[in-house]
């Protein structure tokens, strides 16, 4: 990816999204992050947007394009969990997770591709999860939303692959973040036992793979699912 790229990262105010935004800034790109609260890292343009609200995304992307230029790389990262066993999962728990994780990626990508189609160049990177491929008890809503991103990326690849646009999925395993810090110690220890690498990953390790997918070196990779999980989901 040349350094005249304009990168948009949703949910770039904290966690993995923030590390991704920091990495693109460090690599010399113009970077915008959307946030519902707080600010993106130094060197980024922060715009308020809720990915469940198409109008707020329209306004955010219009502002990014006016201030930084047409978006050339979009990273759909914003996501939530509402874990509970299926028997206890409310319709609202299911809908909110699908609407944020899958609907949010749809709305973000749909708006961001307009300029990519014109430029005949673009990178779409969707942050999924090992949970979407492996299936995790207590995450029927989350696993479904993250698996949905795979079908979405592959359909987009077939629609836009001929226009110099790639769409790929990154599937992190357990990454040190606010999301994993919420797990109690016993759960964390039992998860670590199942990870061949024997440790959680870092947000920076996810960011490195995202940066590579956005680079010219990955121009012929599309519709792929790249795990960043220390071997946890092997074979899925
Ligand atoms: P965090 O909970 O630390 O951050 C989530 C981010 O998403 C925040 O920036 C949050 O914004 C944003 N967000 C949530 N809902 C919305 C919304 N409706 N509109 C706009 N932004 C929203 O999560 P992580 O950094 O851990 O996770 C980032 C992504 O990586 C998620 O998609 C997650 O599913 C995925 N992932 C995480 C793993 C992990 O181990 N941590 C493992 C596998 C995948 P705000 O601060 O305003 O709430």
Characterise this structure.
- 46% of the residues lie in helices and 16% in strands.
- By secondary structure, the chain is α/β, with parallel strands linked by helices.
- The chain has one domain (6-227): NAD(P)-binding Rossmann-like Domain (Rossmann fold, 3-Layer(aba) Sandwich).
- The protein has a 7-stranded parallel β-sheet with strand order 3-2-1-4-5-6-7, sandwiched between helices.
- Helix 1 (15-26) packs across helix 8 (203-214) and helix 2 (54-68) runs parallel beside helix 3 (91-119).
- The radius of gyration is 17 Å and the shape is globular.
- Bound molecules: NADPH dihydro-nicotinamide-adenine-dinucleotide phosphate.
- The site of NADPH dihydro-nicotinamide-adenine-dinucleotide phosphate has 28 residues, from helix 1 and helix 6.
- Residues 5-178 form the Ketoreductase domain.
- Keywords: Oxidoreductase.
- One of its GO terms (molecular function) is oxidoreductase activity.
């Amino acid at each position: 990816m040349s350094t005249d790229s304009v990168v948009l990262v949703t949910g770039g105010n904290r966690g993995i999204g923030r590390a991704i935004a920091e990495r693109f800034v460090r690599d010399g790109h113009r970077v915008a992050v959307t946030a519902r609260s707080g600010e993106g890292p130094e060197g980024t343009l922060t715009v308020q947007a809720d990915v469940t609200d198409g109008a707020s995304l329209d306004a955010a992307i219009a502002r990014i394009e006016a201030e930084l230029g047409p978006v050339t790389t979009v990273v759909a990262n914003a996501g939530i969990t509402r874990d509970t066993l299926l028997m206890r999962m409310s319709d609202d728990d299911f809908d909110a997770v699908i609407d944020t994780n899958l609907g949010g990626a749809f709305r973000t990508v749909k708006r961001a591709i307009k300029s990519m189609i014109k430029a005949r160049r673009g990178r779409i990177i969707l942050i999924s999860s090992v949970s979407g491929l492996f299936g995790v008890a207590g995450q029927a809503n989350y696993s479904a939303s993250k698996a949905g991103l795979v079908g979405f990326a592959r359909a987009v690849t077939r629609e836009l692959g001929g226009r110099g646009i790639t769409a790929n999925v990154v599937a992190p395993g357990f990454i040190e973040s606010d999301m994993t810090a919420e797990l109690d110690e016993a759960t964390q220890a039992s998860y670590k036992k199942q990870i061949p690498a024997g440790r959680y990953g870092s947000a920076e390790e996810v960011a490195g793979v995202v940066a590579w997918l956005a680079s010219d070196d990955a121009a012929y990779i599309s519709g792929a699912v790249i795990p960043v999980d220390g071997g946890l989901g092997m074979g899925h």
